[in-house]
């Protein structure tokens, strides 16, 4: 897996927020439903205010909590990283400084899912890093993706 470790200063994500439930590995709403609910005009507007890395449309997962049966809830933002003060009426989340493991993925959604699984099953157990209590992000465009995972040094 190709990755890099980067410390990134605080940044703001502006976009559409969903509260998602995952029961028996099934999301409600699904990612397809979330994306379909955002108009082309909104997507273009969010993309146009993206002025800080990671550029373009980002998918940010925060406030993840899981019960004893493996069911989970979390907040999902689909938006853009920006320094603009005008939020265009979208929801906003401030992301504090984190150390990020950024994994590059070439390919379709199946490749992204496979890489995500390998991050948890292979990379994290064998690396000198562990998960930090922070967000996960996905940036994708034209079969090129980056998975951003908030991490900290083990120990």
From TrEMBL:
SMART domains this protein is in? AraC_E_bind (SM00871)
- InterPro entries named among the record's database cross-references: AraC_E-bd, GyrI-like, Reg_factor_effector_dom_sf
Q: Which residues form the AraC effector-binding domain?
A: 1-152
Chain ranges passing through the membrane: none
Q: Which Pfam families match?
A: GyrI-like (PF06445)
Name of the protein in its database record: AraC effector-binding domain-containing protein
Q: Which organism is this protein's natural source? A: Caldibacillus thermoamylovorans
